[in-house]
Amino acid sequence: MDSLRTLRDFLRWGASRFVAADLFYGHGTAGAADEAAVLLAHVLHLDLPLAPEFLDAALTADERAAVRAVLRRRVVERLPAPYLTGEAWFAGLRFAVDPRVLIPRSPIAELIESGFSPWLDEAPPGRILDIGTGSGCIAVACALAFPEAVVDAVDISADALDVAAVNVARYGLQARVRPVQSDLYAALAGQRYDLIVSNPPYVPETEYAGLPAEYRHEPGSALVSDDQGLEHPLRILYGALDHLTEDGLLVLEVGATWPALAARLPQVPFIWVELERGGEGVAVIERRVLAEALA
């Protein structure tokens, strides 16, 4: 251990330990080296990507101790890097996160960055609903993408809403983004929206049991849905008819559960978005089309 002196030394050592421990990387990084770089940058207060001129700089004794500690926690506790750093990136924005919320990683970010083109090209939404807001990442990103819109950020978890409020305040959006504690639409009687976006629980219990250990640090209630992963998506779909405006749009993520949803509702002509940056199971459907299909 005394031979580890420079940033490069610890980057290599950390990546080697991660590979040996067979860690899982599904929360913002692509592999061991990237994961180690994220943790080193956090501890040493450096920007990513790590500047080449810093790689051979020697760390102080305190820095070496702090780096060893965080790398060991990643291995021993299997905590995803964002929970160790307290932050994650989504749609080019930095968000505070902790184990009260899922780590932001929804491919819906790609749609937000494009302004939900082509579906909303002619009429930007005035009212937006984010169901299952968690950290508030989708709500905040939507508010920034549509500066004239107001957003209701709904979650059943009061703990999650506390985290969302931190992120809403971080971007100065308190006047336009409203955290609401609600079981889906329960607290939204009479409210209608031009755009409803949701990344709800959709993982079947049987699949959850086989997920890598890193996922077990996230709130299970934000991942698991009964009825083969379809309970929450189906409630959102049917409830959307009462909460979308006449020309409103629903964007619903169901990930790998999409074949089950398509099979359950074969009459619904979902548009399954082709995502350039990876991911699957993001459906887009207009209210009028949904109403006709579910009639």
Q: Topology of this protein?
A:
Elements: H1 7-20, H2 32-44, H3 61-76, H4 81-85, E1 87-90, E2 93-96, H5 108-113, E3 127-131, H6 137-145, E4 150-155, H7 158-170, E5 177-181, E6 193-198, H8 205-208, H9 226-229, H10 231-243, E7 244-253, H11 258-264, E8 271-272, E9 282-286, H12 287-294
Parallel strand pairs: 3-4, 3-6, 4-5, 6-7
Antiparallel strand pairs: 1-2, 7-9, 8-9
Helix pairs in contact: 1-2, 1-3, 2-3, 10-12
Describe this structure in words.
This protein has 295 residues and is of the alpha/beta class. The protein has two domains: 7-85; 87-294, Vaccinia Virus protein VP39 (Rossmann fold), CATH 3.40.50.150. 38% of the residues lie in helices and 16% in strands. The protein has twelve helices and nine strands. Strands 5-4-3-6-7-9-8 form a seven-stranded mixed beta sheet, with helices on both faces. A two-stranded antiparallel sheet has the order 1-2. The chain is elongated and about 70 Å long. The N and C termini lie far apart (68 Å). The model has no long low-confidence stretch (mean pLDDT 96).
